[in-house]
């Protein structure tokens, strides 16, 4: 149950307004620590990492809502994403899923930093996330290699994580083959789930985000959604 709670928390994190935070209870944190070696059917080995990604999602939403950043918290979140490691040796598939969660968190952290500019006197290169372009390239590689969503006979309960990955990564993709990867992945998710939210998200990325990017306009996908009143198109 802990893994399911954390997964739901993660996929809803960006949809929670800053005025309504959802803090983790001490009891849940204790149970999470005690089950760290468990391979959950949804979050795999990465339940603890998903919790960090959820914190990043809530932080991104708070930056969008309040137009304020917290460089100290950003450094903490980056270290947590960077330093998380599974307790035990893992299967390649589980490691790949964990990498996807980590990359999603790092991309959203970049987007929060870009949304509001601040002067950080304690800037440290060791606490800097990898370049956004590198993370987007890694995400596209993972998305393109994701055969789970290619067949309805191999449905994964993590499809909403894939949807959020596409929603966060898609707007950052420049014209070219990468956009075809995003478009195809959205279409596969819709074929797999028959959930129309994935079509809406694909249309949002294609018709709203990409034209802005092509014109050189600075934007954050979540800010556009919040302004439009569509705070949780994948839920």
Automatic annotation (TrEMBL):
Protein name: Uncharacterized protein
Source species of the chain: Lasiodiplodia theobromae
């Amino acid at each position: 149950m802990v893994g399911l709670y954390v997964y739901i928390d993660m996929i809803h994190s960006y949809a929670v307004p800053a005025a309504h935070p959802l803090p983790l209870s001490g009891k849940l944190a204790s149970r999470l620590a005690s089950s760290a070696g468990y391979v959950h059917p949804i979050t795999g080995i990465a339940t603890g990492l998903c919790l960090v990604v959820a914190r990043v999602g809530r932080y991104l939403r708070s930056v969008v809502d309040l137009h304020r950043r917290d460089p100290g918290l950003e450094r903490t979140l980056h270290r947590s994403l960077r330093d998380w490691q599974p307790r035990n040796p893992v299967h390649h598939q589980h490691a790949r899923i964990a990498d996807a969660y980590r990359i999603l968190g790092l991309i959203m952290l970049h987007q929060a930093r870009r949304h509001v500019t601040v002067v950080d006197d304690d800037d440290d290169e060791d606490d800097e996330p990898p370049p956004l372009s590198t993370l987007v390239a890694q995400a596209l590689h993972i998305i393109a290699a994701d055969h789970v969503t290619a067949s309805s006979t191999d449905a994964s309960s993590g499809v909403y994580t894939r949807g959020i990955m596409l929603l966060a990564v898609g707007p950052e993709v420049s014209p070219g083959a990468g956009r075809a990867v995003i478009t195809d992945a959205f279409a596969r998710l819709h074929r797999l789930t028959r959930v129309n939210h994935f079509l809406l998200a694909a249309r949002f990325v294609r018709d709203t985000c990409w034209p802005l990017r092509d014109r050189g306009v600075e934007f954050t996908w979540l800010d556009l959604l919040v302004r439009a009143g569509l705070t949780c198109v994948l839920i």
